[in-house]
Amino acid sequence: MPARPPSRVGWWLVGIILLTMDCRGRPSEAALTSAKDRTPQVQSLLAEASGAYQRGNLLLTRQLLLKACAAAPDDPDIALDLGDTLNRLQHMESARQHYVEFLERHPSASQVRLALGLTLMGLGRWEESADQMRRVTLELPEDRNAHFNLGIVLARLGHTSEALAELRRAAESSPPDPALLTELGTTLMRAGEPAEAEKALQKALALEPDSVPALFNLGQCYGRLGRADEARAALERFSRASGEQEKFIDEKRLFRAAQSRSDSLAREGKDDEALAALLAYRDSLADFPLFQQELGVAYLRAGRRQEAISAFERAVAKDSSLTESHAQLAALYQQAGEGDKAMRARQAAARPSAQGPLPADPP
Predict the structure, then answer these.
(1) Closest of 146, 38, 95 to residue 327, by C-alpha
(2) Helix, strand, or coil (residue 256)
(3) What Cα–Cα distance (Å) separates residue 303 from each residue in 45, 229, 283?
(4) Which of 83, 273, 283, 324 is deepest in the core (most CB within 10 A)?
(5) Structure confidence at residue 249 (pLDDT)
């Protein structure tokens, strides 16, 4: 006599058993913690790490943050702080491994995943970076920076149409971003759409008139469109903005003199005097971005954090390609609990400069 088929209730019980086995075999994600959950010991370690960072002692900063991470393993802000420090030390593989281990315990920590994607960009592991960035855009579909960075990575991989989709999605958000518009224009050039590229690059220059990448690509764009006079004018603006004018050379010489004197005093442990040596040039080098960056470092050594932040902010406002200033701001914002600003600075520090297509023939 053939066996009776299992009843509907029997199948339901089998399903319950299998579901129970699956849940037991897959541990649930641990809960993330935040600043309010930190013990006095962790707070003390973070304060010491902040002081070490201000003194420029990145190795001690790393040691203290490793202890803080061990004491608060589920705190994403501390994880990001340690990752920033490892990247500043050029220990990018260690930073990658650190982020991977944190995400194994907390796969939904999107900001840490975004930081991992940026570190992979720095390592030149573009396919892996794209995988991480794609996941972030799915988890945070309204995050403009995630779409922006995914667009950069896809463009680097040669996936131009996909890159354009991401960059256009990012460009829909407000406020307008000159770096994003420049990247969009550059990618449109690669896609063979110079007329659309011109519109994006002109918007970028309306926001940042001396943007070197935007001016360079606008010159190439006009060349592609057969508008030789406009191409020549744009490339002349590019030449002036890229620092080939006499004023830049004079300022650079003056800056080197100020930097040399300041560095000599700093090596002797005379941080206040090193700062004073730079401040003596404050008026004559006020518009020189590298001076503002160096001033930020000197303010940090002297323990004047807020003034350091202001100096680094002035530096990147004048020259958005200063990755050192962006990296300093990422760490300082993170220490101050300003996670969103820290992530934007972190992204700017990791972002490759928009170069655009190489010129074919001068117009």
Answers:
(1) 95
(2) helix
(3) 17, 52, 22
(4) 83
(5) 60
